[in-house]
Amino acid sequence: MLAVKFHIIRFAGVPSTMDVCRTMALQGAPEGTTIIADEQSTGRGHDGHKWYSPIGTAVYLSVLLRPSGLTSRDAHAQLTLLGALAICDVVENIAGSCDCHHRAQIKWPNDVMINGLKLAGSLAECSWSGAQIDYAILGIGLNVSTDFSHAPDSLNGRATSLTNAFNIPLGVPYVTDCLLAAVEARYAELYSSDNNFAHDYASLLETVGKKVVISQKGTTVTGVATGVTSTGRLVVATPKSVVEVSYGELSDASPPKL
Fold first, then answer.
1. For labeling, which of 28, 94, 179, 181 is most exposed (least CB within 10 Å)?
2. For the chain, which residues make up each domain, given as ranges?
3. pLDDT band per the 50, 70, 90 thresholds, residue 1
4. Contact 252/107 with Cβ under 8 angstroms?
5. What is the end-to-end Cα distance of the chain in Å, rounded?
6. Model pLDDT for residues 94-106, shown as the tens digit of each residue
7. From the centroid of its chain, how far is CA 182?
């Protein structure tokens, strides 16, 4: 197995672990450099959305990766899948340890849900030197014991934490260790020609079978999600054709009208 040697740098608080990790990447930091913060003031998720980051209640981390030999532009999508799957692996392990039946699902492209509520999200950024990845940053926010009673109204009834979902006390350090182990295992799988990313991602994708509205820089794709490609592109049947969507803001997801 390809091992990542994590070099963890902890902060009490930062604007964003992604920003700190990017700065260190540009300074030549080695693969495995991991920025962990107790709190973020301007943490963000997919499409620039602000991530609610109260102190000491969740995992906020960014891992610097320097994937060798990955030249496809689809590598960015693979890393996005990797992050979401690693989170789901953690949820599955916790569920197994407490004999619970909760199962994580993925809302395309990178939100991890439990019982229809958002638990976590992953974010991948890549920098290229020609056709070769220079570095990649995988950021993950995972709610452990987050109290949403004082969260913005936009999160009311939409987000949850591991403690709420499983009704058991869980510490941030323990969940962080579990998450890094899952990231390491999935990263090793990335280099395998027969990796199960696409299969595992598709099996956990709750978006399939629903009517979706995806906003893309001034255009909108509307239709029914019918599947996902090996690189995480959402396959959408629109009234005119079947298209593959590689990015966008999923603003609506509901059962299709029969």
1. 28
2. 7-203, 207-254
3. very low
4. no
5. 47
6. 998 887 878 899 9
7. 12
What tokens appear for 82 in the block?
């990797």
CATH number 3.30.930.10 is the correct assignment for the domain at 7-203: yes
From 168, 120, 161, 156, select the one nearest 144 (Cα to Cα): 161
Model pLDDT for residues 15-71, shown as the tens digit of each residue = 999 999 999 999 999 999 999 999 988 765 555 556 576 789 999 999 999 987 776
Better-scored residue on pLDDT, 152 or 250? 250
* Alpha carbon distance 85, 81 (integer Å): 6
How does pLDDT run across 143-188, given as a tens digit for each residue?
A: 999 887 777 766 667 889 999 999 999 999 999 999 999 999 999 9
Give the CATH class of 207-254: mainly beta
Could you read off the pLDDT of 48-57 as tens digits, one per residue? 556 576 789 9
Angle between helix 75-97 and 172-190 (nearest 10): 130
Burial class (CB in 10 A: 0-12, 13-18, 19+), 131: exposed
Say whether 185 sits in a helix, a strand or coil.
helix
Q: Which amino acid is at 208?
A: V
Burial of 185 (0-12, 13-18, 19+ CB in 10 A): middle
d(CA 220, CA 222): 6
Token representation of residue 213: 């509205």
Question: 92: how many CB neighbours lie within 10 A of its CB?
Answer: 15
